[in-house]
Amino acid sequence: MERLQKVIARAGIASRRKAEQLILDGKVTVNGKVVTELGTKVSPKDLVEVEGIKIEKEEPVYFLLYKPRGVLSAVSDEKGRKTVIDFIPEIGYRIFPIGRLDYDTSGLILLTNDGEFANELMHPRYGVEKTYIAKVKGIPSRSDLKKLQNGIRLEDGKTAPAKVKFRSGDRKKGTAIIEMSIHEGRNRQVRRMFDAIGYPVLKLKRERYGFLTLDGLAPGQYRPLSPHEVKQLKILANQGSTV
């Protein structure tokens, strides 16, 4: 017997939190009866439907994609723009990106049909570290970078301390390459942090997600995660540590 919201999340319908809201909204039935209690448990024999659609148990799948710039981190787009899903061939499962990268940001993004797994990795308290390489306008001083390390006060609150490394500077062009690692996932966070200290981002790439890298991949290429990698990510998320 498992909690109803966990069964819905594992089927890839929604994250566990969204699954709970679906239950509270009366959109879930078990054996034909509407269920609105979050503590409800079901067995594999029970018929679970969400908004009238039967939940089919899917085998969980996990992919790592090197997202190019100019691609949406979404399942679809009403304007017909390219999304991360377009780079994964038809596999018979409804997959979705874990979190998002901005339209103009390239780099490592994960996709899955495992809603519970996605929810764990996206929650800021779990602290999975993401490493970005930013090309910025201007050459930040050591004191400027210290501000990023200590956390920046943005309109949605102060950011957690970041790991920051100065990689290189080009005084002729007036640009610098900065490496920054964070474990939060606020909207456009890296860009906003650099904006706050006066060095707008010209180009941004996510190079690492926990222990995962883009090694061996070109933009637009992907690979499945190994069972060992999935297991390690779950351990990393549950421990709330970073690698």
Automatic annotation (TrEMBL):
GO terms for molecular function: RNA binding; rRNA pseudouridine synthase activity. Gene3D superfamilies: Alpha-L RNA-binding motif, Pseudouridine synthase I, catalytic domain, N-terminal subdomain, RNA-binding S4 domain. SUPFAM superfamilies: Alpha-L RNA-binding motif (SSF55174), Pseudouridine synthase (SSF55120). It comes from the Bacteria. GO terms for cellular component: cytosol. Residues 2-59 form the RNA-binding S4 domain. One of its GO terms (biological process) is enzyme-directed rRNA pseudouridine synthesis. Pfam families: PseudoU_synth_2, S4. The keyword RNA-binding applies. The keyword Nucleus does not apply. It is an enzyme of class 5 (isomerase). Belongs to the pseudouridine synthase RsuA family. This is Pseudouridine synthase.
